[in-house]
Amino acid sequence: MATKKTQGTRTSHSRSSAASRTGPGAGKRITARDLKSFRRRLEDELTVLTGRYAGLEAASASSQETAGASYGEEASDAGSFTSERERDLSLVGNLRDLISKIRGALGRLDDGSYGSCEACGQPIEAERLDALPYTTLCLADARRRARAR
Ligand SMILES: [Zn+2]
How far does the centroid of ligand 1 lie from the alpha carbon of residue 140, in Å? Predict the structure, then answer.
């Protein structure tokens, strides 16, 4: 067992040359293989979200019916119910928003513009796409827009 040779320290030789090519600002460009995995992630996400969306819509539709049946024109006790429903609605709105973003991203995967910032045309940072596969803006432009709001 003690006859293990210790020569593992010399193998990290070819790493430095590869690292030196990616200077600051060059950014990690996404590859065709990344695109495939992004597509799969987006499609999976879309399936989950559309399922959740359909469930929420059904739930809010049925709660609307319940409200009509039990409360009628009485507005007195409907306050808490309304806020709950509004929360449902904003949740549905968020989901719808997200679903349309994901559909847009899948469309950009189809037409080849995926991964480019829609504001400046530069490639979006790979780490950013990894975190937000449906984003249309590079980090700098996303920050700019967030500030402008
Ligand atoms: Zn940009």
Answer: 6
pTM (two decimals):
0.65
Alpha-helical runs (H) found in 7-125: 15-21, 32-70, 79-111
pLDDT in tens, 12-33: 444 444 443 444 445 577 888 9
Neighbours of ion ligand 1 (CB under 5 A): 117, 119-120, 138, 141
Nearest-angstrom CA–CA distance, 118 and 135: 9
Which range of residues forms the domain containing residue 85?
29-114
In a domain, 149, yes or no: yes
120 CA distance to ligand 1 middle (Å)? 4
pLDDT in tens, 44-64: 999 999 999 999 888 878 876
